[in-house]
Amino acid sequence: MVTIASTLAGTAFLLHLVSFRLTTRVMDHWCRPPAAFANMSVAEWRRLGTPLEADGSRNRCSQYDPPDGGSRGHVVPCKAWDFDTERYGNNIVSEWRLVCDRRWLIEMAVLVYMAACAMSLPLAGAAADRVGRRVVMHISLAALLAAGFATSLANSYLLFVGLRIVVSTTSNAFWLVLYVVLYEVSEDMGHSGVAMGSALERL
């Protein structure tokens, strides 16, 4: 039973990490046309208002100013974007405009998630020694379920990242305590197997 619970805890951590990659797929995007050009089709607007790249594709982060100035117009950064949601749907990239000069925020969220994971290890161990493993497991599981659900309802990037910190910390703490229990209840000859299984689970 402890083995199953430990595996599920590690899997939950990894699923939250992988799911973030799925929700941050960058779909095709382009500068949103000004109101005067809003009635144009996407293809017409991109031909008219966005500069060409060296490979012949249309720039996703810049547009001409004025849009109908063609190559004589000044190239300026996009102020807003439209997104092609047909393939990936509406995800956090389109919701919070994580493209162009804001694309680094995607990698920042991953970095924060992994940093929270690393920092939670000594804290979870100390808490388990102080208040007991069962208490840490119960609190971690409750917080993980609440934060995991709340993440789907987050209405801002900062709130989303904050909730993912909670998810990372609690899922890792829950897994760590269960792993220690599993290690202690296994036979001496099984210790290496527990360690190997834990390592493979995280790969």
From TrEMBL:
<keyword id="KW-0732">Signal</keyword>
<feature type="signal peptide">
    <location>
        <begin position="1"/>
        <end position="20"/>
    </location>
</feature>
<feature type="transmembrane region" description="Helical">
    <location>
        <begin position="135"/>
        <end position="154"/>
    </location>
</feature>
<keyword id="KW-1133">Transmembrane helix</keyword>
<feature type="transmembrane region" description="Helical">
    <location>
        <begin position="104"/>
        <end position="123"/>
    </location>
</feature>
<dbReference type="InterPro" id="IPR036259">
    <property type="entry name" value="MFS_trans_sf"/>
</dbReference>
<keyword id="KW-0472">Membrane</keyword>
<dbReference type="GO" id="GO:0016020">
    <property type="term" value="C:membrane"/>
</dbReference>
<dbReference type="GO" id="GO:0022857">
    <property type="term" value="F:transmembrane transporter activity"/>
</dbReference>
<feature type="transmembrane region" description="Helical">
    <location>
        <begin position="160"/>
        <end position="182"/>
    </location>
</feature>
<dbReference type="InterPro" id="IPR011701">
    <property type="entry name" value="MFS"/>
</dbReference>
<dbReference type="InterPro" id="IPR005829">
    <property type="entry name" value="Sugar_transporter_CS"/>
</dbReference>
<dbReference type="Pfam" id="PF07690">
    <property type="entry name" value="MFS_1"/>
</dbReference>
<keyword id="KW-0812">Transmembrane</keyword>
<protein>
    <submittedName>
        <fullName>Uncharacterized protein</fullName>
    </submittedName>
</protein>
